[in-house]
Structure formats: structure tokens, C-alpha cells
Amino acid sequence: MNISSSFRLCRFTFRKCLSRRLQGDTCDRYYCSKSSSTDQTRVVQLKNKLACGPSFQDFIKSSTSDKSYDACNYEYEEYHIPECTTARSQKVYFETYGCQMNVSDTEIAWSILQKAGYSRTHELPEADVVLLVTCSVREKAEQTIWNRLKHLTALKKRSQKHKPLLKIGVLGCMAERLKTKLLEQEKLVDVLAGPDAYRHLPRLLSLAYGGQRASNVLLSLEETYADVMPVHQTPEGHSAFVSIMRGCDNMCSYCIVPFTRGRERSRPLSSILEEVRMLSDQGVKEVTLLGQNVNSYRDLSEQHFICSEGSTQLSRGFKTVYRTKQGGLLFSDLLDKVSQIDPDMRIRFTSPHPKDFPDEVLQLIQERRNICKQIHLPAQSSSSRVLHAMRRGYTREAYLDLVENIREIIPGVSLSSDFITGFCGETEEDHQQTLSLVREVGYNVGFLFAYSMRKKTHAYHRLQDDVLAPVKQRRLEELISVFREEATKVNMALLGSTQLVLVEGESKRSSEELCGRNDGNVKVVFPKTDLPVQPEKPQMVPITPGDYVLVKITSANSQCLRGHALIHSSLNDRRTSEHLLSKQTI
């Protein structure tokens, strides 16, 4: 039974029962009894409320009814914090776990709550509302959040006297996946909101203040929060994440993302460009475009986009579990437009899928000076047999052909990757193939994990998690060791080079050193000092976060580069500065 028919049946049943009650009849079938005059008065009041309440049309987006629910123009001011407190006194505290998308989600959720009258605190003891933005990709991530929730619940009990209205909420992937356990079994939280329900946070919190446990974890086929301008919380304001799409259609057998974040839908190009322009005006020097499958971006927000003749162009030798998608503005169109907004703003993107790197995207990266020459290329495994079980859509050979093509089009490109050890059925030979791929490609950054089976996934239903935990761990340690060896070689090759570094702030290990990242997204550490703005002028200026500086590399290991800063610079002036410095050296 669909939603429409269920709703009509409920209304029919209720109205029939209501009609009989108004007539004073009994109707055991509907669990009603003969009513008194007082009951009839209450029923009349209830009937009046029903007449003023929402109809079925209110639950349909884009309804032609005069009284329609438009998510994009929804007014949150109607949700008020109870009178016992005021909006100004309510402070919300966020803790964010997991990927960069959760950082972006935190900024979206905060924007919505700020509009509803909440203020934000970065100190837990000051909080009236504690919201955890969660991750479900791996079991370890979930366990971390379970432990944190138990700690917060104990804190809530201890602080009943001076914080009687403290509310705890879980947002994001874990809220969607474990609603029943969080809300009903463990009873650790007051509010649950899935990745597509952040618009409803003010209402959910209002219900929680009324004494209810409130949740909304429904996934959407349309929600992109295109009209919500995130409140960016960037360190010193020099970099920011911009979400461009949500969800994933790839259905890799190990991955929970399609089940916690839903199907792919892309944010309109116009709203992305508006946000990037705003960030540029604020002085942001680096923007990272975000999505679960960021390079499968496809804007279908306007009719003429849908009717365009463009179709998905996959990397050679790659395939998908879904049919070729037609129409829309593609990732190459977006990258082209974004890179033109501010020539002195670095553009990155994550996390991509290797299948979505046609030559036009690679050529654009090579042509545009402000698009970083760094590509994240998740392999997950190097055994074609394991890749088939993972439903990745490519073989080892196709992946290596793509690496060769990328390096041919973008000389000097930096590559990073993801790998999983101990996937279902992985043999020692499969593991050795993965080690050999790492040696052959030479990545400078990697994200390596032992396999953790997730419920709802294809692997959970169809495959056997048959690699023992100690074997997974041993293979992971071997992979980490090989990865570090190769990353050290890649980074050592940069000795003596001059790298353009975007300064992030002080080094964690010493207040006398600064750190930042080069074009390849490798950390660079150097002594704090004043630098000239131009080689031929003696004026010295301190280095501050958000500055571009040229750094001469003098040492390297698997995790970072070290050197000494030479001069202030920019994306546009780099070559000029390097040329003048070389003349001075001569």
C-alpha cells in the first residue's frame, strides 16, 4: 500500500468513527463507545481542529493545491523554543565525526538552527543542545559515537539541576541507520535527524523540549540544501568545503553510503557558483568541492539542461551498475565555471570515483592554474577478482591504464587513494597484488582500512566475511608499511624543488614553525619568519594563515615535506617570483 492510499484509508476510518461518535453510536470495530455530552463537545473540538489541519496535498511537494508544502521556501520561524527559555539563551554544541561531507553537513545544520534563533558554543559545559554529526562507514566510527553518547548521557544526568533541559541529538548517517536502537532501545538521544532532514531540526528540537523523542530519518530524491547558505567554520577563514551533490548510485558491495545518504542528486550550478563567489569575497583562498561521488555531478535543475544531448562519458575500460545517464550539466562544466570565479583561489574536489575521469576533465585540470594537480583515485583493491566482488566496475588493468592516461595529460600530478584489506574472499595472492599496485603507482597520500561489514550492503546479504580479524590487521599493517615506503620515495623526489604553499597556521609540534599544503595536498612545514613581498624590495612582512608562500624543500618523509620559506607569492605570481628568485641566485 502506497502513502497516498494509506493516508486516504486513515482519514476515511477516522471520519467514519467521528461521524458515528457525533451520532452517539457505538462502533466496536473502530474502538469507540457511546459518548456523553462532554465527549461530544470534545469530538466537535477535534473535528474543528481536523478541518484546520493539513490535508493530503500538504504532504506532496510541487502540489497544485493552494495550500502546499514547499521545502525550499519553508519558514522555520514557526518553530519556537518553549516559553520557559528564550532563543537567545539556547546554545548548540556540535561534534563532527567522519568525512568532509559531515563537516559540510554541520555547516548546513548550523545555518538552519541559527536562522531559528539558536546561538553556537564551542564549549560543551555551556551547551543546551549537543548534536553529534555521525558516520557509519566503519564499525570503529560507530563505536566511537556509542561511547561518546554514553558519556554525554551520564553528563546529562549529573547536570539535571543546572541544565534540566539539556538535549542530545544524533545527525547524519548513524541516525538513519540505527534509528530504533538509538531512540527506543538504548534511549540515549532526544533528537534524530538523517542527512536529508536537517531542515526539520527546529521542529524536532521543539518537540524534544515538549517532552517527546523526535526523529526524521527519511531519505529524499531531491534534497540538496541548495537554498541553504552554510555558515562556514574555517580555520582563519582560508579554506572551505562546498557540497555540490549528495548520495551515491554506484552500489559498491561493501558500502553503506547509498543506504544512509540515498540516491545521487546534484545541487544547481547557479547556487554553487553563488556560494563560491561569496567565499571569494570573504577572502577564502581554497575551496574543496564535495560529494560522495563528486565527479558524477549532473545538474538537471532546468529543463534545457535535462534536454541537452550530453551523456556520461566514463573512463576507458570502466562500467557502472546503472544505465548511462543522459542530459544535464556535467562535472567538467561545473569545474570550468568554478575555476573562473577567482584565479587566485585553489580548487580541489573529493571524493571521486575512477570511472568518472573522461579526458575533458583531465585536460581542464591541466589547463587551469588554480585547479590543483592532485587527484584522489580510490582503488580499494588491486585484484580484479576482488574488484569484481566489490562491484567496482573495473579491473586492475583498466585502473593502471587510467593512471597512465592521467600522468600523460597532467605531468607531475599527485595521486592519493583508498584501500580496504581483508574484503570477503580476499586471498594472500589478492593481497600481494594490492601491495604491488601501491609500489607501481606511487601515491603520496593514502587512506587505508581493514574491511568492516555493514548491514544492508550487498556484501552483507550475498558474501561471507571470511577473512579473520588478525589476518585483516596483519595485511593492513603490511599495506601501511609499503605505502609509507613509496610515499617517502615520491616526496623525496621533491627535494630541492620550490613549492607554492597555502599557509594553514602554526605547526602542531612547534609554535616556532608554520605549516601548510602544496598543490599536491602534501603537508609542508617551515620556520616562522618574515618574508619579502617582492624579491627586489627590502620590505619584510609576517606570514599569516591564508598567505601563499614559496618554500624551498630541504627534507622529506612519508607524511610531510620540510623547507624554508623564500617569498610571499600567489597563484598568479608564482612563475614571476620563481624567475626573479632564480636571477638573484645566479
UniProtKB/TrEMBL annotation:
The protein's enzyme class: transferase
Catalytically driven reaction(s): N(6)-dimethylallyladenosine(37) in tRNA + (sulfur carrier)-SH + AH2 + 2 S-adenosyl-L-methionine = 2-methylsulfanyl-N(6)-dimethylallyladenosine(37) in tRNA + (sulfur carrier)-H + 5'-deoxyadenosine + L-methionine + A + S-adenosyl-L-homocysteine + 2 H(+)
UniProt key word Iron-sulfur: yes
GO cellular component terms, semicolon-separated: cytosol; mitochondrion
Cofactor list: [4Fe-4S] cluster
InterPro entries hit by this protein: Elp3/MiaA/NifB-like_rSAM (IPR006638), Methylthiotransferase (IPR005839), Methylthiotransferase_CS (IPR020612), Methylthiotransferase_N (IPR013848), Methylthiotransferase_N_sf (IPR038135), MiaB_methiolase (IPR006463), rSAM (IPR007197), rSAM_horseshoe (IPR023404)
Domain MTTase N-terminal: from-to ranges: 90-210
Residues of the TRAM domain: 492-567
EC number: 2.8.4.3
Protein keywords: 4Fe-4S, Iron, Iron-sulfur, Metal-binding, S-adenosyl-L-methionine
Pfam families: Radical_SAM, TRAM, UPF0004
PROSITE patterns tied to this protein: MTTASE_N (PS51449), MTTASE_RADICAL (PS01278), RADICAL_SAM (PS51918), TRAM (PS50926)
Highest taxon above the source species: Eukaryota
A Gene Ontology biological process term: regulation of protein metabolic process
A GO molecular-function annotation: 4 iron, 4 sulfur cluster binding
Occurrences of domain Radical SAM core (ranges): 234-489
UniProt record similarity statement: Belongs to the methylthiotransferase family. MiaB subfamily.
Name the record gives this protein: Mitochondrial tRNA methylthiotransferase CDK5RAP1
Source organism: Sinocyclocheilus rhinocerous
